[in-house]
Design a protein that fits this description.
The structure is a homotrimer of 204-residue chains. By secondary structure, chain A is mainly alpha-helical. Chain A has helices at 5-27, 32-54, 65-80, 82-87, 89-113, 118-140, 145-148, 153-169, 174-194. The radius of gyration of chain A is 16 Å and the shape is globular.
């Protein structure tokens, strides 16, 4: 089996998302079932919500053996090497940003293929990239990080809007547009972490 | 663009639901992403769950530009004029009741069109009218208002049952039956607010 | 109307699941709407998520009058005889275990019919048997029992794996394989309750 570069990028994102779910499970003292379930929900939740909304069933993860394997491996690694996972958080952030970028593009492509309006396609990109983490937070009873702190959805919206506009309105080759858009998402996300950019929170 | 009266009623309901979601986001100090997301989830969550359950995909909001615009406008207004929103709560309750009434009927009509049993159609009405608010409460970590205090689902069930029974078993014209049924829902809901009717809560 | 033995087993499981949802509603001092809704969500939530994931809509409960009646009866009984429900918990555990077993098999059969990979079929079994309770816990704001304490999903996975492997790889008659598999699930579940087996919880 040989992976393409794009598959490798997607897998590294899936892996990082699953680690994030597994870490949340460990922080809540879940058992091994909770560990696996939360790793899966975090990694494939966004794509699953997207597929349900557009009616693409059976949903994608059910036939994506490679991703499912990556999620199980991530859960096992998180359980066995939890203290190292914390140390390697900086690297995981990079993989997570790549996942956000790749998943955003996947979601948008499915929206375009379904003939949906451009803003809805961008929304599907954000849902694909970020709603797995939302489900993770709702299940564990935490306030959603997606809604309260970090430049996460904003990075997805920025790169996603660039992607969909360039795809629909310019003759630029798809691979080029996708590369630039993912780079924009990863760049905004990592810069926001590096310089601690945060969205203002609303006050009463 | 000219709106029909019915579209206007539905839009005022969507607007009120979105304000309710945006208000919850502000109360939780969410950021602008959380504001928009919660306004959307509250306004279109019920209809989305209904569409998923009956397999009507892509779900309705994706192609409903008018509603989506109303939701964004509501979120912006809630963020900019939060203190006024509180003062205008009484008016918002009226719009919210209208939304509950209109959405209940929409849900029931979709159930009838799908050939589902009458009680299930009524359930789809309640889901359409009230489960957006349920999602809002689950995401923000609040106990669901729908299940704990107010005469909300009961109003939807009363008017919805009237509607489905009159639609299926009487030759009365559809527009007439719908008007009466929405009026019953709005009436029960607003009277319950005015006189502080509450369902008894169950005790151990 | 005469019930088959299998229908009787499924109904007793649905009944026990609904009681569990109704009990949670009463513990949270929900009103009668919350009682009914939580009984339904707990009893049919797992099968509904399964049907959504594989695209089997309208979802099963909408045309399953018998189950819906059992759920309403269970909710009424729980509300009227709450103190007795507590005393009868041991019997309810047996019905609940039977429900877990029967629902696991139903979920797996739907996965096999949809041509999904074997591990995904087992996952659909667990989802069908156990995710109604997960929804119950998320809505009421409790940490999911499914992920934190009991031998529940593990029983479903053990019996479910046995079922799917025997169904696919042996010529044994379906009814026989199903009976053994349900017995394994019920047995593991009840033994774990009797002897207080628990999965180890993960620690940081």
């Amino acid at each position: 089996m040989s992976l393409t570069f794009i598959q490798g990028l997607e897998l590294s994102g899936t892996f990082a998302f699953a680690i994030s779910g597994a870490t949340a499970a460990i922080n809540k003292s879940y058992d091994v079932i909770g560990l696996l379930a939360l790793a899966f929900v975090t990694a494939i939740g966004g794509g699953t919500i997207r597929d349900l909304l557009i009616g693409a069933t059976p949903v994608a993860w059910m036939t994506d053996e490679l991703s499912n394997t990556a999620i199980i491996v991530a859960a096992v690694i998180a359980a066995l090497f939890f203290s190292y996972v914390k140390i390697l958080q900086r690297w995981l952030n990079i993989f997570d940003a790549i996942g956000l970028g790749m998943f955003t593009i996947t979601g948008i492509n499915k929206g375009i293929a379904a003939g949906l309006p451009i803003p809805v396609c961008v929304a599907l990109g954000v849902i694909t990239g970020a709603f797995g983490g939302l489900l993770r937070d709702v299940i564990t009873g935490e306030q959603p990080i997606l809604f309260t702190r970090e430049i996460y959805a904003v990075a997805s919206i920025a790169g996603g809007s660039l992607y969909v506009l360039a795809s629909v309105f310019t003759p630029l080759p798809g691979g080029f547009v996708q590369s630039i858009s993912v780079a924009v998402i990863v760049g905004i996300r990592l810069l926001s972490l590096r310089y601690n950019w945060q969205l203002p929170r609303l006050r009463q």
